[in-house]
């Protein structure tokens, strides 16, 4: 989905947000967004304003989740109408798709599964103001002109309602030196939903990042038996939206 970067030019906006610190590009996403790391322990994410989620949404969700689970602290956030930005404090760990972890897929996949389980257990459903249930995902897609196929409009009954990460792809779990998950990033879509919405995406993304055959370990590390119907449904919904 996204690629680690080594040498890309640093836009003037990022220089400004760096406030004199050195910056290094580390990541580019498929929506034209880029993430930079500063030498004073901040991450600067910039990208075009778009309809799917906003960095204002992300900052709000990170701040909400922060008391319960390790997520970056928001330093500043804004936009100029065309470009939006989010500056956060670094948290420990490397992305689970850093070359170091791609070389150790078993450790990385376990960390992702255990990290997702912890996120689902710790974030409080009762006080979560954000929605990522199927109806809201379908209407968000419609606002972007994406029509979800008829066959995906009715979701299977909710298994366990949790606060979902909303983009539980492998790169969004950070893994520390000891091989355990150390935090989560990229929370623009965090919200209430069936846990399988996240589990299906996490399992699918192991295929993109580590190759075939890791989905079973992901489920084992999360601590759940495969539910083929919900896995297929939420995989298809993800791909359709
Ligand atoms: N505060 C942070 N601390 C540590 N790593 C971070 C932080 N913010 C971003 N990252 C790293 O930058 C990458 C890209 O950030 P992310 O918010 O996931 O951007 P995108 O929306 O483009 O996927 C993450 O996968 C993670 O490795
Ligand atoms: Mg990401």
From TrEMBL:
The keyword Magnesium is assigned to this record: yes
Pfam families referenced in this protein's UniProt entry, alphabetically: APH
GO biological process, one term: response to antibiotic
Keywords, in A-Z order: Antibiotic resistance, ATP-binding, Kinase, Magnesium, Metal-binding, Nucleotide-binding, Transferase
A molecular-function term among this protein's GO annotations: kinase activity
Family assignment from sequence similarity: Belongs to the aminoglycoside phosphotransferase family.
Aminoglycoside phosphotransferase domain: residues covered: 41-233
Entries under SUPFAM superfamilies matching the protein: Protein kinase-like (PK-like)
Entry binding sites for Mg(2+): 172, 186
Organism encoding this protein: Microbacterium oleivorans
Active-site residues, Swiss-Prot/TrEMBL: 167 (proton acceptor)
Protein name from the UniProt record: Aminoglycoside phosphotransferase
């Amino acid at each position: 989905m996204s690629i680690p970067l080594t040498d890309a030019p640093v836009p003037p906006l990022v220089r400004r947000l760096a406030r004199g610190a050195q910056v290094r590009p580390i990541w580019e996403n498929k929506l034209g967004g880029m993430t930079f790391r500063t030498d004073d322990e901040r991450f600067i994410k910039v990208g075009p304003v778009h309809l799917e989620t906003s960095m204002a949404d992300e900052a709000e969700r990170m701040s909400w989740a922060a008391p319960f689970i390790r997520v970056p602290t928001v330093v500043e956030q804004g936009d100029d109408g065309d470009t939006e930005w989010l500056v956060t404090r670094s948290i420990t760990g490397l992305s689970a798709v850093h070359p170091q972890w791609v070389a150790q897929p078993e450790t990385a996949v376990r960390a992702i599964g255990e990290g997702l389980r912890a996120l689902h257990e710790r974030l409080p459903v009762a006080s979560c103001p954000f929605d990522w249930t199927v109806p809201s995902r379908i209407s968000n897609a419609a606002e972007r002109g994406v029509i979800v196929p008829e066959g995906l409009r009715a979701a299977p009954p909710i298994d366990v309602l949790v606060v979902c990460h909303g983009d539980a792809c492998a790169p969004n779990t950070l893994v520390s030196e000891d091989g355990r998950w150390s935090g989560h990033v990229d929370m623009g879509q965090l919200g209430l939903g069936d846990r399988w919405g996240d589990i299906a995406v996490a399992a699918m993304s192991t295929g993109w990042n580590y190759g075939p055959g890791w989905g079973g370990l992901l489920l084992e590390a999360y601590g759940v038996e495969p539910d083929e119907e919900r896995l297929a449904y939420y995989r298809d919904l993800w791909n359709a939206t």
